UniProtKB/TrEMBL annotation:
<protein>
    <recommendedName>
        <fullName>Chromosome partition protein Smc</fullName>
    </recommendedName>
</protein>
<comment type="similarity">
    <text>Belongs to the SMC family.</text>
</comment>
<comment type="function">
    <text>Required for chromosome condensation and partitioning.</text>
</comment>
<feature type="binding site">
    <location>
        <begin position="32"/>
        <end position="39"/>
    </location>
    <ligand>
        <name>ATP</name>
    </ligand>
</feature>
<comment type="subunit">
    <text>Homodimer.</text>
</comment>
Amino acid sequence: MRISRLRLLGFKSFVEPTELVIEPGLTGVVGPNGCGKSNLLEALRWVMGETSHKSMRAAAMDDVIFSGTSSRPARNLAEVTIFIDNSERLAPVEFNDSDTIEITRRIEREAGSAYRINGREARARDVKILFEDAATGSRSPALVRQGQIGDIVNAKPEARRRILEDAAGIAGLHSRRHEAELR
Ligand code: ATP
Ligand code: MG
């Protein structure tokens, strides 16, 4: 599974509809300080289900919505969509009927977040499972936050094992087992 496109609307500094095509291979994001490079990575983490507003550098989750500037009014909603290239059918079986998987997260002020997968309403945990099986996701070692390398080096063995399990892509199995045990 490969992220092939990222679409933003009203997310942080991306007030105008913005769409980025992510070609195979290495992608670099360059630009002056404050132009929104970190906001882009946060958008990726957010659409994959991030629940911590702190890791979005936001005082509350509503603060990911464009907050206005001297010349533009604030917005009331933010939406991020990623398109996953699933032509190799590596997604979990329930999503494996299409070449592209489209995941959208939308937040409205004081109304919280809603997710859609291929246009259909989805739960946060559906999105989480989708990415856990791909050994990625909002909290995965595939997205390295500032200071995270140090955390891994200093982690206790148990915590380090979780990081390795996430990297190996078996966290999704643990989640499903946990859900099955609850039934
Ligand atoms: P650096 O090179 O310093 O790391 P960067 O390119 O990573 O910079 P970001 O941190 O992604 O920049 O973007 C910061 C900009 O995003 C700031 O100008 C900030 O005002 C703006 N910003 C963050 N949240 C919002 C919001 N909710 N509404 C409007 N603008 C926002
Ligand atoms: Mg930055």
